[in-house]
């Protein structure tokens, strides 16, 4: 286990980058706490795998340092970093049995035979392959091979960090849930530092203690699932986390009120944003429908019944806005406006969240 420090870290795939836009990974300065489970979450191409490969030593950064427990490992090869990495597609030894695949990292380090046998049995049970331990890996399905890769990554208890690069891509949906649960259980039991790359918010939010949201090569927020939901630090976080994501309205802000689509809206707190593009973000859960002419003018485009609730798609000044209504709530055809629950309002300047006056940092 190790604390991982990213010190002035950045990377460009161009030999002589000329501007910030040439960097796939823009400058990062973060300490990732020893023993916590992190998910790197973002859309494809945002820099997640680049960062993971720098941490593992598969890629050398253009600038900055990587430290494990304050020891500089920037130039250390992967083998010396004492990490385990599981990739998106399975990497197994086809000529070996499942048991020998799982045992390989331990035998390679001279572990005691009785410990190897016990640990392999434990991991075999964890990945649901106890019955296949003596089968050759050749001929197994892709998801079975990926379970072997996961097991081989988890079999060592002495690693500095466990790194997972979208490891459940080829796993069937039911097994995905089980393996995520097992990974979380393993983390609670052994306290490994874990970093899990994914573009799937469900995977990230159910696996991690802290979610690291990346956008355009930059970390835009690190927080718990609750923090990401309630106080998105960037409009991208609000959009990407949640289904549907946060609604964003262009606005003029004056203290505790905003003008949205020509209507005055109470913000529930005072704000003093300093210029830039001003917006108000409200999640669908905090939007209420009106039919008495109050609120921001809106009309219903369609209603999607998803079983647990209804998603109401509305037109507000030519833009689609989403609201959530209860499964048993009737959506009136007379709906002509929306109001906002003040506790669900966030204010943004140039896409970054603005703290309300008096709000604790």
From TrEMBL:
Keywords of this entry: ATP-binding, Cell membrane, Membrane, Nucleotide-binding, Transport
GO molecular function: ABC-type ferric iron transporter activity; ATP binding; ATP hydrolysis activity
SMART domains per UniProt: AAA (SM00382)
Keyword Ion transport among record annotations: no
One term under GO cellular component: ATP-binding cassette (ABC) transporter complex, substrate-binding subunit-containing
Entry-linked CDD domains: ABC_Carb_Solutes_like
Pfam families, A to Z: ABC_tran (PF00005), OB_MalK (PF17912)
Domain of life: Bacteria
KW ATP-binding (keyword) present: yes
Positions of the ABC transporter domain: 4-241
Family: Belongs to the ABC transporter superfamily.
Protein name per UniProt: ABC transporter ATP-binding protein
Protein source organism: Roseobacter cerasinus
